[in-house]
Amino acid sequence: MRVTGSGVWGPPENRTEALATLRRAVDLGVNLIDTAESYGPYVSEELIAEALFPYPAGLVIATKSGYDRPGPDRWEVNCRPERLRKGLEGSLRRLRLDRIDLFQLHRIDPNVPEDDQFGFLQRAQREGKIRHIGLSEATVEQIERAGKFFPVASVQNRYNLADRAWETEVEYCHRQGIGFIPWYPLQAGDVAKTGVRALARSMLGRSDGKSAAVAKIARRHGATPAQIALAWLLARSPVMLPIPGTSNVRHVEENVAAADITLSRDDIQALE
């Protein structure tokens, strides 16, 4: 999402840096890249293919469909089967793939019968154009209804240190062995421009006491608050797949380094 222009619209301000960031992520061992046809629209998928095709073995490109984009910062849910078909075919073409490893419904459209949306995904999987299917912003009940059509491989809901509204879904995915992909995993601004305490507050959106705990843990580990937020997600459950977005090489290096941070039991308790 971050390798596009302002408002998730058009090309990135620095195309060279965006391409370098994608390549550096893979060099660092990242093996899941999450995108969507609506990012740009189309820009993100095109840049991923330009930077990384032919894809190295083991790299999963996950994409999504279900949004129309009439302009910058404008998003309109559209999951009519014919629209999803168009989105899937376009993603296959732009990503230069014969099959999408993980194709996600960007939102469940309240104006289209669920059976129509899930039925399309089921047919596309049987056609061999989709390997695994995921949902986004889905409740436990919706996940279970979708499961009557196909195995739900992943659920992508907003979740981070400050925003745990989908805790029930995290627990469900943990029990069922479904990958949980928390979007907006940092809820933070520019790490380079924000002080440690202020950044911790912006991430948590909570009391100074809680932000102080993040800052203290970050100092003890020689890390940034953003890295602690990612380390907490990774410690939360083995099914957790954080997707911190960036279009900056230095930032992707910082994000990946969070995987080397092991939080103690006391650290985790302080963040609860």
Strand order of the largest sheet: 1-2-5-6-7-8
Structural class: alpha/beta
CATH fold-level assignment of the largest domain = TIM Barrel
- Please state the overall shape, judged from the principal axes of the Cα atoms: globular
Rg calculated over all Cα atoms: 19 Å
Which range best describes the helical content: under 10%, 10-25%, 25-40%, 40-55%, 55-70% or over 70%? 40-55%
For the record, what is the CATH homologous superfamily label of the largest domain? NADP-dependent oxidoreductase domain
Order of helices and strands: HEHEEEHEHEHEHEHHHHH
Largest sheet: 6 strands, parallel
> At the first level of CATH, what is the class of the largest domain?
Alpha Beta
What is the number of strand segments?
8
Mean pLDDT: 93
How many structural domains are formed by the residues? 2
Provide the β-strand percentage band: 5-15%
What is the number of helices? 11
Low-confidence stretches: 189-197
Q: What is the annotated CATH architecture of the largest domain?
A: Alpha-Beta Barrel
How far the N terminus sits from the C terminus, by CA atoms, comes to 29 Å
Outline the structure in words.
The protein is α/β, with parallel strands linked by helices and 272 residues long. It folds into two domains: 1-156, TIM Barrel (Alpha-Beta Barrel), CATH 3.20.20; 189-272, no CATH class. It has eleven helices and eight strands. The chain is globular and about 55 Å long. Residues 189-197 have low confidence and may be disordered.
